[in-house]
Specification:
By secondary structure, this protein is mainly α. Helices cover 65% and strands 0% of the residues. Helix 2 packs parallel to helix 5 and helix 5 runs antiparallel to helix 6.
Length: 415
């Protein structure tokens, strides 16, 4: 009778109520047991899917797995259950190992027929979870926490691109968060990003100071760029590029000018000149080559219904977002980035990333959109070995320098 009443109460409870009971159970397990014991229970509940010492919790999981739309909704339950354990473990160095161990479990869900229909259903839902963007984000989170030094050292060139996420804090938000990420997860990712940016900023500052002084070379180059390329990039992103003005100075001047422009149509013509003047100065081909003509035509066609209007924040932000789509990559499902690759090949990393920097310095509201566009490229190539996509790795390194030195908040001026 007790079992029937328990089952009946679960049937009558809302999905949110059942999920919250499940999350509280996992929290209590984490607080009262060692990580390996918690992982074993998680495995029995969602991977082996045939046992739980707490029958009430087993009944809740079975009920959730059999609810209408479970194939569409259960991924959110699994995701939240995973982060209920992974987030606290990620802040405790003693339990860092448990985060990738948890994620790896989902790659080992049994495919053989199960004795119980409930087991078969839960296993199916766990396998489906590995095909979702939620699982992809969780896997990247595990890569971020995983300590590569724990095994035999592998040269970065031989490692998958996905293993380099830790090096690029500007990719964290778009790589680690999904539409259903709760505030706790957003806070955790924000904290990890802030810490990584501060650490890298200090490393860059110390290395720059060392480069200016004679004597011992004790501070290692924190980037994957050769020293001379690093120095050239740093000088370009923070130094004077036109007369006595930096990219930041020129962006401020153009922002001031844009407030006086008569129409959106006029703005687009001036915007083209602002964007491409460094490329044209460095390479006369960009005075009137195919890339310039394509970009001019694209800008002219962008929001053309607004051509006769004065600028608004909406017009500026939307235009800059569309511009970054044009320059970097358009979509996520089947990303096409031929134009970006060609620009890198023709103009080089420094000038290309400098062009992107000019966009976000002019309109800082689209900096997250630039980060998102580069994340699309990163995620698309994350299973590639680094040596097979040197153009992408170098671009990410340049972007790190450009964004940290112009937007970083670690109390050091590189100019």
């Amino acid at each position: 009778m007790d079992s029937y009443e328990s089952w009946s109460s679960h049937q009558n409870a809302s999905t949110a109520e059942l999920e919250n009971r499940l999350y509280r159970f996992l929290q209590q397990c984490r607080q009262q047991q060692d990580a390996d014991e918690v992982l074993q229970q998680f495995h029995q509940l969602f991977i082996q899917a045939d046992y739980c010492p707490d029958e009430t919790i087993w009944d809740i999981v079975v009920e959730l797995a059999h609810r209408p739309y479970a194939e569409r909704e259960f991924k959110y339950t699994l995701n939240r259950c995973s982060y209920t354990l992974a987030n606290p473990w990620s802040t405790d160095p003693r339990n860092h190992w448990a985060v990738p161990a948890l994620v790896q479990m989902f790659e080992q869900v049994p495919t053989t027929p199960a004795a119980m229909a409930e087991t078969q259903t839960i296993r199916k839902l766990s396998r489906l979870f590995t095909q979702t963007e939620q699982y992809d984000a969780l896997r990247r989170f595990a890569n971020l926490i995983d300590d590569p030094a724990a095994g035999a050292p592998i040269a970065i060139d031989e490692q998958p691109v996905g293993k380099q996420l830790k090096r690029y804090p500007f990719l964290y938000d778009s790589s680690l968060l999904t539409k259903d990420s709760d505030q706790q997860q957003k806070n955790q990712v924000g904290k990890l990003r802030q810490e990584a940016e501060a650490k890298l900023g200090v490393q860059l500052a110390r290395y720059c100071d060392q480069q200016k002084r004679e004597g011992s070379k004790t501070v290692q180059n924190p980037t994957q760029l050769p020293s001379d390329e690093f120095a050239q990039a740093l000088s370009y992103y923070t130094g004077k590029v036109e007369g006595n003005r930096s990219h930041r100075d020129l962006a401020q001047m153009f922002r001031t000018y844009s407030k006086t422009v008569r129409s959106f149509r006029d703005f687009k013509e001036e915007f083209l000149e602002y964007l491409l003047s460094p490329l044209a100065d460095a390479d006369p081909r960009y005075v009137n080559n195919h890339f310039r003509r394509s970009l001019r035509q694209y800008l002219r066609e962008t929001l053309s219904d607004f051509d006769d209007q004065r600028l608004t924040d909406f017009i500026v932000i939307t235009t800059c977002q569309k511009l970054l789509n044009f320059l970097v990559v358009q979509g996520r499902q089947q990303p096409v980035f031929r134009r970006f690759w060609q620009l890198l090949h023709d103009a080089g990393q420094t000038l290309t990333v400098g062009l992107l920097l000019r966009v976000v310095l002019f309109c800082s509201a689209v900096k997250p959109w630039l980060e998102n566009r580069l994340t699309v490229l990163f995620n698309h190539h994350e299973k590639y070995v680094c040596k097979d996509v040197p153009w992408l790795v170098n671009t990410l390194e340049h972007t790190n320098i450009a964004l940290l030195t112009n937007f970083g908040k670690f109390g050091y001026s590189f100019a």
